[in-house]
């Protein structure tokens, strides 16, 4: 409703639209918290009405509020609130200010509806609306060619996932005759219910469709390449959609559909998630675009969540989803402040630089102390160091991954080892990012030595969201125990699938190993980029090129998918223009020639005969008229002539 009011009733640049949208999301957040307090770890609420019938099958639609629903409900609305406040300042000079908040409100409506709906058909509808509103927001700056290309890429890749989801829903309904999410996957969610009726090859086809949906929406390999390009949208949108909410929809889908997966399918999820996490972390090591580093970090952390679902760490996956939403949103909003201030310097001194390139930054901690602290807090949570929420959520995933691999073939050990190495890579690229942005000398001085840094942390609309999210990145929001992830309220709110044994040695070794090596990696990065004493990463060689070129995946798509499709399109266009159109033109020319012949025949033959007959009749009439002159002798002469002709003819024949 508020999106419609803002879009159709308010002027395009009216500041009322921003505050109206912020008020709406504030009410949503307050109501979400109230609903959360009534439902969490209590009886679920399921209200539905008859929607339509298919033969003898009755289809109901309504709202389903269980622990998963209300967690996402609170997460989306609480994350969206500081983003709205931030956006009111960040977008204040934009000519399409009102349109921005229209799109933003529309997205929030779609996302909130997605997490509470109880019907697979409506789930798909709101899944599509989330993708569509994201498309509008990514390409919001429509005059930027890169933004237009990015939103088209995101739209196309998400459509691939949407086709997969639709196929899976059709298979599930055909097998179970039900669209009811609670009936299919609710109640005793970790015991096969109606979903168990999907058998045989259809089980794997449904899984393939769901995997495509997750891979597209949550940017998992091989459909992950749209997310880094989506950073062309406003930074506030990156904070909300591409760090905390929309990209989490794929993990939410796994949580909703979890009972349908068998062990083989869960193993595939674990492998795909682990590979995505590792791959994205290696790419983030060499990126110089501030938002692009965070984008690949998001892909990596989403890989952690998908991997956790695959190994049965259901609670830890959702725990990490919630924790990640806060610290990644914080990092994106802080990045927005940094880019905003660097853009001011660029415009003031007419510099030809990219304000998002960290190679042109440095030394900003003294001018932007609050943003610096926010980045430190968010970075530590991302790395997963103690006293942060990231420590608790990531600790659970890593420990359970080693427990999951216990007793299995050695190749399964690669998954927890890959996750472990990824956590250390995360520590390095986070340290590199903070060092490049906040330490050392301000690099733009080399372009103009007279530059004066008239920059800061911005007004209260920037500061308050950063402070709020920084507090949310610390452990007390999730647990009063800073070291035991099992004591977190989110962890206790969902069934535990993998067994937990506090005597298990992994609970002691893994946290110590992870954090000890992470601290060493941070010190190494500090030595490289701040003290300049250690050897930096080599900026040549195969591994560097692999990372810098993003594992050549986009280039592979360009050669294997884009170029063949373009060639096929050109061939189809040539065939259409020269063969199809040529044949049609030939038929048209034959028709025209035939019509010309028919016209000539009609004009000169048909009309000629008619004209000849008419002339003959006229001639006969004229000839006969000569005998009708009133003279008797002519009549007698005519009679004599006729008698004479008859006599001659009779004589001859």
Automatic annotation (TrEMBL):
EC identifiers of the protein: 1.6.5.-
Coiled coil regions, renumbered to chain: none
Keywords attached to this entry: Membrane, Oxidoreductase, Transmembrane, Transmembrane helix
Domain NADH:quinone oxidoreductase/Mrp antiporter transmembrane: 118-407
An example molecular function term from Gene Ontology annotations: NADH dehydrogenase (ubiquinone) activity
Membrane topology: Multi-pass membrane protein
PANTHER family referenced in this protein's UniProt entry, alphabetically: NADH-UBIQUINONE OXIDOREDUCTASE CHAIN 5
Record-linked NCBIfam families: NDH_I_L
Protein's name in the database: NADH-quinone oxidoreductase subunit L
Organism of derivation: Mucilaginibacter ginsenosidivorans
């Amino acid at each position: 409703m508020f999106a419609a009011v803002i879009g159709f009733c308010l002027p395009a640049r009216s500041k009322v639209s921003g505050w109206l949208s912020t008020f709406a999301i504030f009410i949503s957040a307050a109501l979400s918290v109230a609903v959360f307090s009534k439902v969490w770890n209590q009886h679920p609420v399921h209200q539905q009405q008859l929607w339509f019938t298919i033969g003898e099958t009755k289809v109901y639609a309504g709202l389903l509020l269980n622990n998963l629903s209300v967690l996402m409900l609170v997460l989306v609305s609480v994350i969206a609130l500081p983003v709205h406040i931030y956006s009111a300042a960040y977008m204040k000079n934009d000519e399409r200010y009102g349109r921005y908040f229209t799109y933003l409100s529309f997205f929030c409506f779609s996302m909130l509806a997605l997490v509470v709906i109880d019907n697979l058909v409506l789930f798909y509808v709101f899944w599509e609306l989330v993708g569509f509103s994201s498309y509008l927001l990514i390409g919001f700056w429509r005059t930027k060619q890169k933004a237009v290309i990015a939103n088209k890429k995101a739209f196309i890749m998400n459509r691939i996932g949407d086709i997969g989801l639709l196929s899976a829903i059709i298979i599930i309904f055909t097998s179970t005759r039900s669209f009811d999410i609670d009936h299919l996957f609710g109640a005793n969610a970790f015991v096969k219910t109606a979903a168990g009726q999907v058998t045989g090859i259809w089980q794997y086809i449904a899984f393939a469709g769901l995997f495509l949906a997750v891979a597209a929406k949550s940017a998992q390999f091989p459909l992950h390449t749209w997310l880094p390009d989506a950073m062309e949208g406003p930074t506030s949108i990156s904070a909300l959609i591409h760090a905390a909410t929309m990209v989490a929809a794929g993990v939410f889908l796994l949580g909703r559909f979890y009972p349908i997966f068998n062990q083989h399918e869960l193993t595939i999820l674990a492998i795909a998630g682990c590979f995505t996490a590792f791959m994205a972390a290696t790419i983030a090591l060499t990126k110089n675009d501030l938002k692009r580093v965070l984008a690949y970090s998001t892909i990596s952390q989403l890989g952690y969540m998908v991997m956790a679902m695959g190994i049965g760490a259901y609670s830890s996956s959702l725990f990490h989803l919630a924790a990640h939403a806060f610290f990644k949103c914080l990092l994106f909003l802080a990045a927005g402040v940094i880019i905003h201030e660097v853009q001011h310097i660029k415009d003031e001194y007419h510099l030809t630089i990219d304000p998002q390139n960290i190679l042109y930054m440095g030394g900003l901690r003294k001018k932007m102390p609050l943003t610096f602290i926010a980045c430190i807090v968010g970075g530590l949570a991302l790395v997963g160091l103690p006293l942060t929420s990231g420590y608790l959520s990531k600790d659970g995933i890593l420990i359970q991954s080693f427990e999951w691999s216990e007793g299995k073939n050695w190749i399964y050990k690669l998954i927890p080892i890959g996750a472990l190495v990824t956590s250390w890579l995360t520590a390095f690229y986070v340290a590199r990012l903070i060092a490049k942005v906040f330490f050392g000398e301000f690099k733009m001085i080399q372009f103009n030595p007279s530059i004066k840094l008239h920059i800061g942390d911005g007004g209260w609309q920037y500061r308050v969201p950063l402070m709020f999210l920084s507090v949310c990145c610390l452990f007390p929001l999730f647990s009063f125990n800073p070291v035991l992830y099992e004591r977190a309220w989110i962890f206790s709110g969902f069934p535990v699938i993998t067994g937990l044994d506090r005597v298990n040695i992994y609970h002691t070794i893994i946290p110590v190993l992870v954090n000890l090596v992470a601290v060493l990696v941070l010190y190494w990065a500090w030595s490289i980029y701040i003290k300049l004493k250690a050897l930096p990463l080599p900026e040549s060689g195969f591994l560097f090129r692999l990372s810098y070129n993003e594992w050549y995946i986009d280039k592979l798509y360009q050669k294997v998918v884009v170029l063949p499709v373009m060639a096929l399109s050109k061939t189809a266009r040539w065939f259409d223009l020269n063969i199809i159109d040529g044949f049609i033109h030939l038929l048209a020319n034959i028709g025209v020639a035939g019509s010309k012949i028919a016209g000539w025949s009609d004009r000169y033959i048909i009309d000629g005969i008619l004209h000849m007959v008419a002339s003959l009749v006229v001639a006969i009439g004229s000839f006969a008229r000569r005998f009708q002159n009133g003279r008797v002798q002519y009549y007698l002469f005519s009679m004599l002539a006729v008698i004479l002709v008859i006599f001659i003819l009779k004589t001859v024949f």
